[in-house]
Amino acid sequence: MNNQLKKIALFLFLFLGMAISHSMQAQGRKTVTGTVIDPSGMPLPGVTVQEKGTTNGAATDFDGNFSIEVASNDAVLVFTYIGMASQEQAVGTKTNLSVTLQNDEEALQEVVLIGYGSQQRKAVSTAVTKVDTEDFNQGVVQSPLELIQGKVAGLQITRAGGNNPNGGTAIQLRGVTSITGSRSPLIVIDGIPGGNLDLIQQNDIESFNVLKDGAAAAIYGTRGTNGVILITTKKGSKGAAAFTYSSFVSRDYVNSKPDFLSANEFRQAIADGIISENNDLGSSTDIFDELINESNLTQYHNFVASGGSEKSNYRASFYYRDAQGIALENGREEFGGRVSFNQTGLDDKLTFASSLAVNLNDANLLGGGQFGAVTSWNPTAPINAPYNISEEGILYNPGKYGFYQPENGFNPFSEYAERFNERKQITFSGDAKLSYEIIDGLVGSVFGSYQRNNWNDRYYRTTQDYAQYNTGSAYKGTGYAYKGNHTDYTQTVEPTITFNKNFGDNNIEVLGGYSYQYSTTEDYSMDNNGFTTDGFEDWNFGAGNAITDTDLPRPSLYSFKEDNTLIAFFGRLSYNFKDRYFLQASLRHEGSSRFGANNKWASFPAVSGAWVLSDEEFVQDAGFINNLKLRAGYGITGNQGIPNYQSIVTLGTGGKYPVFLDGADGATYYQTYGPVKNPNPDLKWETKKELNIGVDFGFWFNKLSGSIDYYTRRTEDLLLSYDVPQPPFVQGSIYTNVGDITNNGLELALSYRVFDEGEFKWNVDFVGSYQNNELTTLSNQIFSVSELYGGNIGNPGNLGNAIRNTEGGPIGDFYGKRFAGFTVDGQWLFHKADGTIGRASDMTEEDKAIIGNGLPKYYASLTNTFRYKNFDLTVLLRGKFKYDILNTVDLFYGNPSLLPGNVLTSALGQYSNISEAPQYSDYYLENGNFVKLDNLTLGYNFNLGENSPFSALRIFGSARNLATITGYTGRDPEVQDTGLYPGIDDRNFYPRTVTVTAGLNVNF
Amino acid sequence: MGILLTIGCTDLEETTYSELSESNFYKTELELVQANLRPFTHMQAWLAWSGQNGYYYHNELSADQTAWPQKGRHGYDNADHIRQHYHTWTSQEGRLNNAWRLMWTGLGFVNTAIESIEAVDAASIGVEPERLASIVAEAKVLRAYHYMKIMDMWGNVPIVTTVGVPTNPATAPREEVFAFIEQELLENVEKLQPLSQKLIGRMSRAVGYAMLSELYLNAEVWSGTPRYAESIEYSDKIINGEGGSLTGDIALDQDPLGPFNNTNENSPENIFQFPFSRKNDFGYSWASFYMGFTNMTAALDVNYSGNNAFVVIPTAFDAYKENDIRKQEWFLFGPQYRYGTNEPILGSEEYNGKPFVYVNNIRRNTEGQTGEGSMTDGEENSGARFFKYRSGTQDDPNYLEGDYVIYRLTEIYFNKAEALMRLNNGNATQEAVDLINESKMRYFTEEDWATEAYTTTTLTMDELLAERGREFIFEGMRRTDLIRFGEFTTGSWWDHTPSGDDHLTIYPIPFRQLQANPNLVQNPGY
Fold it and tell me: pLDDT digit of tens for each residue in chain B (526 aa)?
């Protein structure tokens, strides 16, 4: 395959070269011939030979020979070849040139961040993946992490809630590492550990560096277990002041609508006698369609000014974004900015770097959660109807203010009209770093940062809200108001010292540092009701009558504060010999206030090494290898991502009880206090030990490059609540370190430059991973748990947990009944453990079995980048393989017993035989394999003349989540795949969408 | 600058803000009382019907009066309630484990309070030593109450009086647990104050006597030795007013709803009750297992709805005669109407859109099923429903102010009558008949009473059990009563057939507890 392509390429180049040379005019010229070889002496065919400053060019033949006519002896020839450094040769008086092209090591000179420092790619001995701006996914609208979705092997980024602007993004690297602790990678933004992603918007990001293995992450100690994502923002650069304006507009379109009964189908069910006649309420409403914000439009504007001189640079970026969801009343409007300034002085010995970032956003949280109405809403019910609770023959409607209020359910539109639920948030970060080069190679630095995150919530239900005035309402027709405030802030100080020196072929670099981080959270909120007028909304709490009227629900007051401290001493030694043998060792000694008195401190060591084989002569002899590096690393990391105060006894409130004080006439209800947990002075961090072995390679002049990593990791001392003997303990469980999780996997990243010359370029990048998770142990001599249940399926029927993670088994096993068919009456039949078949009521715990697994084993993505002249086209395909999905939508709503609530059309079709209530079994498990056309982006870069006011102009159009190839019958096989209970397609109906974007970037 | 000053700091002590640490509590008398009252507020989780995992759940659903059948798509619940009804439980029951944890957590709260209070130097916080002693006495009587209920469930359990010590306490035989409870009560009950309005919801002398009356009445089952005379002794102390009363002289409430309505803190017969109060922010969760779905909200003119869970077993409803006022007042039955109107309440499941009528059977009537049905054949309207406790309607100033009653004088009457009969070889004495008649005559008209009154011939032990059932339905004591009368494993009710297997009279130690504490011994037969 590869050879064929090479031949085709060669043919093309020869053809082009001949065509060009024939069109040349010969005018007092001379012919230069020669041979081009590679460093091993092999002739290079297809090398472009061009006379500098002209369009005159030729190409080498199969034997590396070329021949070209040049204008004069002043001519300079430029030799370029894919994967090799280009070379210029002055012709002079020569008529024959012998040229040796050197391997292009640009890729190896790439600078990679490794935490508290950086390294050239060549020196990296751990598993670190870097993604630069040019490789980011385009058309990203929500989380900045989506920029690298499908770009980093082993990194899972999932938005299980669809494209909700106020929804979250789940991130997980190399599988599940913890049961109760944090499972998300540590985010470090420009050196701020625990950086807030709200402060990062796409155009400010220079690169992502993902520290994947233990050896790489160990420098972050108790926060390194889940990997580290280092985000670098763009900085100004030396040169003329530049402006950039970027903008896009995007719209979401529903890509799959749950197939519930329409009004006509519902009426047909009435006509067929399946549901009774009084269910026809006389109207026709497609409540799903009604809830869709068809005119949703998201827009984004970003303006950047940057520049710099020899000694300083600056960049100021401001943006505005208005994101509207596919649902009504479901949006987020934000603006903010990021400003950075860097300067050197004192003979370049003193360096100052700083940045400030702020994000202000207003979120409308009212909508997006009402799609559940699809299941309860009678499709023949009107949205608006007059009040009527007496007159016969007219629709019974207890809703007084124009909205129809169903008796068993709710009307989302009256909620939209009579409520608001909004959040105003400000996030801020500021950081500064001062470095001074004390003597040559010895640099001392102090880094400090401050992050604050604050939001104010407002919520109100008017006197005309059905929840307030219905006949059973405790609010007796008065308004309800809530206000809440949250503040958290983190301050970090990290002084470091680095020393770098060469001793002949030996180079050493030493890092030493101290880290102090203090974080606190403060919350308060209040609610009141009894507002007889809606004129105040939540702006006059004292006007709410519930303060004094004890017949109204009691108003509530709440406040809360917690804090924690993390302190560390760390060091790292990097050594290399001849730039060919690399060794690195690091140690972080860290203490967290969260752990028990006996175990506050721990040490996290790591060691790794790399050998650049391609610099060895015996490898260079094999001509096609340009880069070959072996890496191996072992590192120990921790996890302190647990709640505060878990190791000490605290007393909490336990409800009020009457006390008669001396001399009092009546009882006073006082709070009671009791211990809320059993203390555990031995509580400590979870420890992950990881071995990573990797190979980086570049073949055929780096036409094909990539890396393979194998890892095996084991998290020990997993934190979990265990039963303790009761008596003598007050509470039934203790939070303690017992179990182990083992993960191992293989990651492959490949980049293939199919065409890299001429006007048509084609690049293929493949990223794939395999992972295997095992919950190795959950027990020790003292504490034991044999399984963890989760993934509650819910009501009706309280169907319990879908997933059981068993000690010694993989994570994500579906555990339930095994479907055996239906009786002639449509009753469920299941297999029993003894081989017989029985009905639902005959089933016991023993009859359940492992019936599937919800955790994908293989992830793959394929990016194709095409460039033709000024056009570029990116096609991203992404897939997950070998896992099962529990289709709970079918489970519940594909069952006629849920009538007269609305059901899927299948409940009256393929499932109409079912006569019993929903039951959980493997009947509803489906293969989840899918391949998604996740991103299709077409861009055009305009040719700009000398006189153009712009230095660059680009437009692009993008479509995301465009098509899915899958056997899964539900809405979207991309369901939650992080955490311990994956693979459940729950009944959260937030619609899945196709996002279409059009954008513009201008530089001037 | 503040940031820089912290450099060099290696202090990792935690500071609590929104919870208390032990070192900044127990500083005043009120704080000691607040610690002492923690187990009281916790009791509602296991002793009352609002908890679906507690003592109440097990003591009612395993007996002959209430059940939680599957009703169409609702209530299958992993067949938990079905196993309770058919007595097919195992040591793996999740709800049983929860009951264990809840009850022992309550005991842990008591032990914490006792330890902490005993460690306080009375003088240093300005409390008189006698007051401190009386606070401790109250806690010890409360601990005895916890032990009595734990022993009723599981029989053989460890006796622990110190938090955390020993780590793995060993099972003590039921007789020893019994002896511990008896000793704690005898040592402390007399130190308590007599019952009065000031001690509502607290451990008073009357409560202590009631506990002793119950302890000795069940002594034959619990310790192997009958102690009926002592049961009578303590019942008499209450009846004679030696334990005090809530209001006036202690007496049976002539109002059939008096002990249960929303002003029941004034009922002359109530001895021990949780003083719930909506106005004081300790509201009772009425919206739980006895209440129907939202459609029933309008029937009662209330603002809560429930899970449509517990229903009355048909044979238990049939145990009331039609002219028994209790049958009319304590149950919801037949067609339901919007409060104060003739507008029918509509169903929302099998009877969606149709008038909602409670029926005295548990079967698929909509599918034409006949016969007695079963635990999996319920419909939304199956069985008569609970209406003994009344929250009142929303416009009632005492709406949701009612208390949950744990001991009332009628029970003491029944205890004494039963003890008298047992001492008389199971035959009624006139005194026993008078006690039961005094209770029963409240529920019949004068003309009916002539034929309803018991005589020493008609008040047999079987009849006493039946009348006790009719009187104390929904009060969380039926399993204990059936066991004491020997009916729990031999009796039949509705579709329940007897197991004849005596080991079922105590529950298995939950499997997870056996795993956690190797010194626990599983009860025989499990």
Answer: 334 444 456 788 888 898 888 888 888 889 999 999 999 999 988 998 877 789 999 999 999 999 999 998 888 888 899 999 999 999 989 999 999 999 999 999 999 999 999 988 888 888 888 888 889 999 999 999 999 999 999 999 999 999 988 999 999 999 999 999 999 999 999 999 999 988 999 999 999 999 999 999 999 999 999 999 999 999 999 999 999 999 889 999 999 999 999 999 899 999 999 888 888 877 776 667 888 888 898 899 988 888 899 999 999 999 999 999 999 999 999 999 999 999 999 998 889 888 999 999 999 999 899 999 999 999 999 999 999 999 999 889 999 999 999 999 999 999 999 999 999 999 999 999 999 999 999 999 999 999 999 999 999 999 999 999 999 999 999 999 999 999 999 999 999 999 999 999 999 999 989 988 999 999 999 9
Q: Determine which helix (DSSP H) or strand (DSSP E) holds A379, and give its type and residue range.
A: none
Alpha-carbon gap: A843 to the closest alpha carbon of chain B (Å): 9
Residues 6 or more apart whose CB falls under 8 angstroms from that of B369 comprise: B363, B377
User: Which residue's entry shows tokens 């008389």?
Assistant: B424
Q: Which residues of B touch A657 (CB under 8 A)?
A: 37, 40-41, 201, 275, 282
> What is the CA A856 to chain-centroid distance, rounded?
16
B109·A674 Cβ contact <8 A: yes
- C-alpha B465/C-alpha B463 separation (Å) is 5
In this complex, which of B7, B109, B160 lies closest to A493 when CB atoms are compared? Answer: B7
Alpha-carbon gap: B274 to the closest alpha carbon of chain A (Å): 9
Closest CA to A130 of A1, A243, A220, A230: A230
Q: Phi and psi dihedrals of B511, rounded to 5?
A: -50, -45
Under an 8 A CB cutoff, do B294 and A276 touch? Answer: no
Q: How many CB atoms lie within 10 A of CB A267?
A: 18
CB A977 within 8 A of CB A856: yes
Q: Which residues of A touch B201 (CB under 8 A)?
A: 657-658
Half-sphere exposure of A995 (CA within 13 A, CB side): 28
Residue of B nearest to A523 (CA): B18
Count other Cβ atoms within 10 Å, centred on residue A167: 18
Tokens of A352: 């100052």
Token pair for A247: 């903008």
CB of A518 closer than 8 Å to CB of A479: no
Closest CA to A310 of A270, A347, A336: A347
CB atoms B397 and A560 under 8 Å: no
* List of chain B residues whose C-beta atoms are within 8 Å of the C-beta of residue A840: 76, 376
pTM of the model: 0.83
Contact pairs from chain A to chain B, CB under 8 Å: 251
The whole-angstrom separation of Cα B332 and Cα B384 is 6
| A189 phi and psi angles, rounded to 5 deg | -105, 115
Nearest CA in chain B to A524: B18
| Structural tokens at position A708 | 């393979």
Å between B238 CA and nearest CA of chain A: 23
Q: Which residues contact B157 (CB under 8 A, 6 or more apart)?
A: B147, B150, B151, B171, B172, B177, B509
Q: Which residue, among B227, B202, B201, B203, has the nearest Cα to B215 in the 3D structure?
A: B227
- Return the residue of A nearest to B170 by Cα: A727
